[in-house]
């Protein structure tokens, strides 16, 4: 064999209604390398990997393993060839335990009965070997997203897969979990496993990848050596133009208070303590206030209470002078709250609705979109077309595309378009750029700044330190359910922010007031 490619995908073409997702794409993976697959949202990365994993069949092209042509009709064929995949949205049964999920489909049996003890030993040994500490008896719905991802990785290792596909594996992880995952990937490559790694994050590619293949709008742009290629070159290959990595904004000019939060307390679902303890702060019109913190310090519960998804046990919330403490979600929306949620599938979209239906979810009862109780489909279509072009939402069939069939990044753009375009006084943006490519991130940051400049208040909740530092006008740090610091991004450093986020430092003014 003249090359050392373990996998060759040659001239792959995959078509969906109204869109060529992969247009004559070739990708070669060497044994023992980490190979990044880079591209904008909707560039065809996940589709290409789904063809390799047997979830889709290509219309044209062939796949070779170790030089031999192979046919992959379904994921079982892929597993038999040693190919495993961690999906962007995990494929786990929430009410099963970790162990049950790992052995699902390859259950060890003796005389027709489930034989779990050997499987448990193998899972424990694998998690020790690779530093993937997971409790085999924990139930999936009770463990963190980072832990769920480890379960997906253990599923691949349990099946002795040698080719590991990671689809956007860091999109839902905290910075600490990302660091751990990248170390785990390096370890796999050292052992001779071959990794295909879909990501938008150029820092991560520079950190772990040996080579990188770039796709743009379904077409193959090129494969480069990561060490000798700059981030700027990679981003230019990805989006076809130069990208600005800094956020261009003039100093904020705060006006009157638009959101006032006083002594808000929210119970925890997982333990007896409160998740949010007596939190108070204001957001003014014309400023971006960022609630920063390591994931799991009460931000999610706070946003759920603020937006009406969960009940709070104490405190008051005032929006644009109106007490909304006990208001339902629609009342909050009509009072001027827009919400880009953390989980786009659970709280952001109705996946089986079309794109145009999703874009009017919070406005369908307004005269623009209904007459005498009947939807005005022509207005709906026009409105959807306007937002699709304004926010560059890419979809195979335009307004009638089912939301489920769109790429994660384009689903996110649709939510952002809907929330920014509707009347609002306050925009609550939770992880708004999660899973987005650099071009889309640049665009969304501009949207947040222009929302601020239009005299609205913006409350940003983010785990991305670069985003916190570049986009905010004021940073509030949340640690164990309390606000432990208020920082000015122009006068602080990432290191100082990190100390507050880890609880190692608190604002002295706060300590003094507690000491009185």
Automatic annotation (TrEMBL):
It is found in: Cell membrane. One of its GO terms (molecular function) is ATP binding. Keywords: ATP-binding, Cell membrane, Membrane, Nucleotide-binding, Repeat, Translocase, Transport. It comes from Youngiibacter fragilis 232.1. SUPFAM superfamilies: P-loop containing nucleoside triphosphate hydrolases. This is Heme ABC transporter ATP-binding protein. It is a peripheral membrane protein. PANTHER family: CARBOHYDRATE TRANSPORT ATP-BINDING PROTEIN MG119-RELATED, GUANOSINE IMPORT ATP-BINDING PROTEIN NUPO. GO terms for cellular component: plasma membrane. The keyword Translocase applies. Its main location: membrane. Gene3D superfamilies: P-loop containing nucleotide triphosphate hydrolases. Pfam families: ABC_tran. Residues 7-242, 259-505 form the ABC transporter domain. The keyword Protease does not apply.
């Amino acid at each position: 064999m003249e090359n050392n490619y373990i996998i060759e995908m040659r001239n792959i073409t995959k078509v969906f209604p109204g869109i060529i997702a992969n247009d004559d794409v070739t990708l070669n993976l060497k044994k023992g390398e980490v190979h990044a697959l880079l591209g904008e949202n909707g560039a065809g990365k996940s589709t290409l990997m789904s063809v390799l994993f047997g979830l889709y069949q290509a219309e044209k092209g062939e796949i070779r393993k170790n030089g031999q042509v192979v046919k992959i009709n379904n994921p079982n064929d892929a597993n038999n060839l040693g190919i495993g995949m961690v999906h962007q949205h995990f494929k786990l049964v929430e009410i099963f335990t970790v162990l049950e999920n790992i052995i699902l489909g390859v259950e060890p049996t003796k005389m027709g009965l489930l034989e779990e003890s050997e499987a448990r030993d193998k899972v424990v040994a694998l998690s020790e070997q690779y530093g993937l500490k997971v409790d085999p008896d924990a139930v999936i719905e009770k463990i963190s997203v980072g832990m769920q991802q480890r379960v997906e990785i253990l599923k691949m290792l349990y099946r002795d897969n040698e080719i590991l596909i990671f689809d956007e594996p860091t999109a839902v992880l905290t910075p600490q979990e990302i660091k751990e995952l990248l170390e785990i990937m390096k370890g796999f490559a050292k052992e001779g496993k071959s990794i295909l790694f879909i990501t938008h994050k150029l820092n991560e590619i520079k950190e772990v990848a040996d080579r990188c293949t770039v796709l743009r709008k379904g077409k193959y742009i090129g494969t480069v050596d990561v060490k000798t290629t700059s981030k700027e070159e990679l981003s230019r290959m990805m989006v076809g133009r130069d990208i600005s990595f800094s956020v261009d904004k003039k100093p904020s000019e705060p006006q009157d208070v638009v959101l006032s939060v006083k002594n808000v307390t929210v119970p925890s679902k997982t333990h007896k303590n409160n998740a949010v303890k007596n939190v108070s702060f204001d957001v003014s019109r014309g400023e971006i206030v960022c609630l920063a913190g390591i994931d799991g310090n009460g931000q999610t519960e706070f946003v759920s209470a603020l937006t009406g998804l969960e009940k709070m046990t104490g405190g008051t919330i005032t929006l644009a002078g109106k007490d909304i403490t006990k208001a339902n979600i629609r009342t909050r929306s009509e009072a001027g709250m827009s919400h880009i949620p953390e989980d786009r599938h659970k709280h952001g979209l109705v996946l089986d609705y079309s794109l145009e239906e999703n874009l009017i979810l919070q406005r369908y009862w307004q005269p623009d979109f209904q007459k005498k109780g009947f939807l005005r489909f022509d207005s709906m279509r026009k409105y959807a077309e306007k937002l699709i072009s304004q926010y560059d939402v890419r979809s195979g069939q335009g307004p009638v595309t089912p939301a489920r069939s769109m790429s994660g990044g384009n689903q996110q753009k649709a939510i952002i378009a809907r929330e920014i375009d509707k009347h609002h006084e306050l925009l609550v943006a939770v992880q708004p750029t999660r899973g987005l490519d650099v071009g889309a991130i640049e665009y969304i940051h501009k949207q947040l700044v222009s929302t601020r400049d239009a005299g609205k208040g913006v409350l940003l909740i983010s785990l991305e330190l670069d985003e916190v530092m570049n986009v905010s006008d004021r940073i509030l740090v949340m640690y164990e359910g309390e606000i432990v610091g208020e920082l000015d991004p122009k006068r602080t450093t990432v290191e100082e922010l990190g100390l507050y986020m880890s609880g190692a430092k608190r604002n002295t003014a706060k300590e003094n007031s507690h000491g009185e």
